[in-house]
Design a protein that fits this description.
elongated, 5-stranded parallel β-sheet, 12 helices, alpha/beta, 2 domains, 35% helix, Aminopeptidase, 372 residues, Rossmann fold, 7-stranded mixed β-sheet
């Protein structure tokens, strides 16, 4: 394989057991160590997510995952982890002819973040080497629009695990490397379906979305988008005296110098945007907008979460404003963890909402090479 023209890939290895005394971490460790040289040479980053560490409760989100509107921080954290990956390797045992409950639960928390990404399985067990767990899992992943590949690794515990460690062999190690090779080929082939033709873009919650920082040539479309989005705000708040309806391209150009802007496109069309900047110790988020015909797909919640994740390390909280009659906006922000606050200068007829900046906003998913 050649990575020169195919772009970097991020593969997430999911350890799918949480029971005490489990073999999952040891098998994950063997797989990661075995494939890492090939991954490095092919521009593949291998991350690990141990579901015991992820520690998701049983599904507790009131909204359907398809909307991407998450109330709980554990869901938003899991969403970012999965969304950052291009492909998955699931290391799973077999429990009573099926997959572990924690794995099914982890699948069920999300929807769009899984779509159009390949998944491979490394299974382990006794008589069937965990293959019945894989067959059950494939029914679920295909419903989530994931693509299970043909290559797999199945370990019979009695034959391959000694003293709690995988006793690798030339054939077993080659099977692991072949699995990674097939997974990467399929992941690169599926990139257009994920909107990943631009190597600098970030996959969004809906197929065909990409995100990048705004450039000067985006300003004309940004101007049109914000006027479309703020018409409803003007109606709800009974005023046309709203800056997004008055601004010119020159105003946006000036703002581009003092704010960080991010644009979201769907198959090339600008459908959403947001901006943010530091305001003393706050990370001030503004102009969160989604084209009216794209509303309800979870784009706004996803984009808000992304903007929060760009907060500098020295900020202590995220802050935003909306109209005092903008009930839908206020509801969205409160579901995301924001609360109303009366501190500081607040524009007339506006509501200020803030949220303490969680520690996780300082960085993305960390690569972990060993047992987790």
């Amino acid at each position: 394989m050649s990575s020169k023209n195919s772009g970097n890939l991020r593969v997430l290895v999911i350890t799918a057991s949480s029971r005490p005394g489990r073999l999952g971490p040891a098998i994950t460790d063997w797989f990661v160590r075995t494939v890492r040289p090939a991954a490095t040479s092919d521009a593949i980053t291998v991350d690990v997510a141990d579901l015991a560490d992820v520690a998701l409760p049983f599904l507790d989100e009131p909204e359907h995952p398809v909307h991407g509107s998450y109330r709980h921080e554990h869901t938003r954290r899991w969403s970012r982890t999965v969304a950052a990956a291009d492909a998955f390797v699931v290391v799973t045992p077999e429990y009573n002819f099926g997959m572990p409950a924690v794995l099914k639960n982890a699948f069920d928390f999300l929807y769009q973040e899984w779509a159009w990404k390949p998944v491979a399985f490394v299974s382990y067990g006794n008589t069937s080497a965990g293959t019945r767990s894989v067959q059950m899992a494939k029914q679920v992943v295909t419903t989530l629009r994931m693509v299970p590949i043909g290559a797999s690794v199945a370990l019979r515990i009695a034959d391959t695990v000694h003293d709690g460690q995988v006793a690798g062999s030339a054939a077993l190690d080659e099977a692991a490397r072949a699995l990674l090779g097939e997974l990467s080929r399929v992941a690169r082939a599926l990139r257009p379906l994920r909107g990943g033709t631009d190597p600098t873009a970030v996959d969004g919650p809906v197929a065909g979305l990409t995100l990048r920082e705004a450039q000067a040539d985006d300003l004309a479309e940004l101007l049109v988008l914000q006027r479309c989005c703020w018409v409803q705000e003007a109606i709800v708040n009974d005023t046309l005296d709203l800056a997004p309806l008055r601004e010119t391209i020159d105003d946006l150009r000036a703002a581009l110098a003092t704010w960080r802007w991010w644009c979201v496109r769907r198959d090339g069309r600008l459908v959403a945007a947001v901006r943010a900047r530091t305001d003393q110790r706050a990370w001030l988020i503004g102009r969160l907008m989604v084209a009216p015909d794209q509303a309800g797909n979870g784009i706004g919640s996803w984009l808000l979460s992304y903007a929060e994740g760009q907060a500098p390390g020295d900020t202590t909280h995220c802050t935003l404003f909306t109209g005092h009659r903008s009930i839908r906006n206020i509801s969205l922000y409160e579901r995301a963890g924001y609360t109303r606050t009366a501190t500081g200068d607040i524009p007339p007829d506006s509501v200020r909402l803030s949220m303490p900046r969680p520690d996780h906003l300082a960085g993305a998913v960390h690569q972990r090479a060993g047992v987790v």
